[in-house]
Amino acid sequence: MSGGDVRVESVRYAYGDLEALRGVTLTIRAGETVALLGPNGAGKTTLTRLLVALLRPAVGRVTVGDWDVARKRPDEMAGRVGYVFQHADQQLFARSVREDVAFGPRQLGRAAASVVPVLDELGLMPVAAVHPYDVPPPVRKLVALAGVLVMEPAVLVLDEPTAGLDRQQRERVIGALRRRAAAGVTVLVVSHDLAFVAELVERVVVLREGRVAADRSARELLYDRGALAALELTPPVTVEIGQALRLPGAPIRTAEVAAALRGTKWRESAE
Amino acid sequence: MIGYLAGRSPLHRAHPYTTLALAGGVLLIAFALTRPLEMWLLVAVAAVLAASGGREVLQSSARTALLLSLPIWALLFVLYGVLGTEPRIALGIMSLSAPGMARALVLGGRITAIVLGFLTALGTTSPHRLVEAMTASGVPFGRTFLLASTLTVLPRMRERARQILEAQQCRGLRIGGSPVARLRALGPLALPLILGALAEVDEQVLALDARGAGGAARRTALEAPPDSWPQRLLRGALLVAVVAAYGWKFWRMRG
Amino acid sequence: MTAVVTLEGVTFRYPGAAREALCGVSLGVAAGEIVALAGDAGAGTSTLLLVATGFAPRLVGGTLTGTRRLAGRCGIVFSRPWTQLTGLCSTVGDEVAFGPASLGLAREPVLASAGRAMERLGITHLATRDPAHLSGGELQRVVVASVLAMEPDLLALDDPAAELDPAGADALYALLPALAVGGMAILVATPDLERAASVATRAVVLAGGRVVADGPTHLLEGTGVAAIARAAGCPPPYPPDVPSLLRRVGR
């Protein structure tokens, strides 16, 4: 079993009387990219918190690689699972962006050699010496992400990583995650941003009322209007274009749609 | 634990000035009393006050007051009781200083009474009603907001602290362990808490200003809490009690 | 169309900042317009909102040169709902009434304004709920209602749907045209160019604190559709949304 395999076996979890997870079974192989979708209250956050030992399953087992999460503390899980919270910008505290990003590896007793490349990857070099609270909130989000990437975890779990980011910042995040996935890191994202989901993931797991309601390839789900409507989601523009123009191959990424449209005889703009 | 707990007790329904006056009265009288018996009578009064706030308020205030008081009682016991002056009373193998114990009881009781009084006031005074009461009295909004915000700051900070704790653990920070390790963990916990709170204050000031909070016009009180003459009488009586307590203290000191 | 806010040659620098956040910006927004402000991080879009509404330099400090004319009241909505609550109100109704109450109006008109605003946002059913227990989407609607209750002439929104799920975001942006029709001038700064393009009547693009474009919404070239069109060899101007792209393809 690889360090990046995630197995959730018949897990149940309740907050007092409120059942958040009612028997979830899920296997994510090392290197897979998965999006976790579902309405609010479906149990997505509960599931992700179980993966880092912030919660312990009442029933069932959660394993990451050969680690049984029930036997680990969150700071121990940090060695294998990198969790980026939705409001991760709240955790920043060091005197500079660079120092804050180096915090994680230091806790794990590792050298912070990879800080500069990661800062560069996310476009943070211009603010490396700036105090985290002097940079705008979207940039703080990138700093928080950098702080986790630099720990080189086998599994990455991200909660709404693109909320509030502009186009360029989103591209950087997508690039960073794609590179990690290509290198064998397991990536799990909770996100409403279907355009981002389309660019990054191969597989979508839908949670509803504490259970897995669907587990399909991203391509299949995004082209299923009915399924998306049931989730109160609208297809990303790539899928809208693909459906309207009946493009072959069910393209979901920008590059795929652009390739399918190359050679089109474009009409003049009316404006 | 600390902060407003909704309820329908007499204290909850009382005018906010009354509950604050009661807490203030306990505070001032506590400093006027100098004998163990009187002091612990005051503690009993504070406990009765807490009870009149309802079961939740009583449990919460009593628990917190005890948690805060116990270490202080222990310290006072050692400092004054064990290490105090003659005359001493024998208690089995130990001997305790009689005046020392009296002093310890007074100081310990004072802290307990004050803490209990304030926790009760905090637990039964809704920030919203306090703002309405102050607005109806014509207090400028700035002062109103300052006072009311201090009532809500603790629960908010506690929630933030919890979130920050989790985030830092997920970055490998070990909570617990040796005292040195715990001390080292303070920075990554306290700093974001304070910095984040300050950053939020910036945004909140803008938002409040946008809602006219700093404006020149006099705010309209939409639901001024009803005051009543018995309550006004009670507040007046409290003032008299405070004055009487100090009068008695100085008279005893003289004689 | 009457201009609600006019900026002429406005230059603004934050206290202690090395460079100017806004440089020679001239811009006017009229009643009934929905202006989308676009620009990368650091371009000055948030600053422009603060300057247009008068919060800069009054509350944030800094130096401003140039002229700014505002006719009427303004309201501003930020992206994080919970920092915009007063923290003092135990019900949504009280929270929404807070703004009008600050204006010193009598009780009846205050409650009436609050009631109207809640109806507009479809949150009348939340009136007795505690704001602390609401979801992000509901909370942001409360915030917008609280601002609308003061009946501003200029409404500024800084990435208002950043914390919302898609349904909530759509609902929020869908409100704007109705408000504009009612005579409000609306300025919305957001990286969500798709949604902005779907409701805006005009686009202003900033870069490095300067206005680099001011005109029709196809100027919002940063949309996903524009990126696809550009990559597929479409000649500029790039279509900003799916219908325009389909027209350019010939469907």
Task: Describe it.
The complex is a heterotrimer of chains A (271), B (255) and C (251). With 271 residues, chain A is α/β, with parallel strands linked by helices. Helix content of chain A is 34%, strand content 23%. Chain A has a 6-stranded mixed sheet with strand order 6-7-8-3-9-10, sandwiched between helices. A 4-stranded antiparallel sheet of chain A has the order 2-1-4-5, covered by helices on one side. In chain A, a hairpin with a 2-residue loop joins strand 9 (203-208) and strand 10. Chain A is globular and about 60 Å long. Chain B has 2 domains: 10-130 and 227-254, no CATH class; 138-210, no CATH class. In chain B, helix 2 runs parallel beside helix 9 (229-254) and helix 6 (127-136) runs antiparallel to helix 7 (141-169). The model of chain B has no long low-confidence stretch (mean pLDDT 87). With 251 residues, chain C is of the alpha/beta class. Chain C has 3 domains: 1-72 and 154-167 and 184-217, Rossmann fold; 76-152, no CATH class; 221-251, no CATH class. Chain C is built from 9 helices and 9 strands. In chain C, a hairpin with an 8-residue loop joins strand 1 and strand 2. Chains in contact: A-B, A-C, B-C. The A-C interface holds A 40, 136-139, 163-169, 192, 194-195, 232-234, 236-238, 240-241, 244-245, 254-255, 257-259, 261-267, 269-271 and C 40-42, 46, 79, 135, 159, 162-163, 165-167, 170, 191, 193-194, 216, 218, 222-225, 227-229, 231-235, 237, 239, 241-242, 244-251.
Q: Write down the Rg of chain C.
A: 19 Å
Portion in strands of chain C: 15-25%
Q: What's the architecture of the largest domain in chain C, going by CATH?
A: 3-Layer(aba) Sandwich
Strand content of chain A: 15-25%
Q: What is the overall shape of chain C?
A: globular
Order of neighbouring strands in the sheet with most strands of chain A: 6-7-8-3-9-10
Largest sheet of chain A, described in full? 6 strands, mixed
The number of helical runs of chain C is 9
Average pLDDT metric of chain A: 91
Strands of the widest sheet of chain C, in order across it, are 5-6-7-3-8-9
Radius of gyration of chain A: 19 Å
Q: State the domain count of chain C.
A: 3
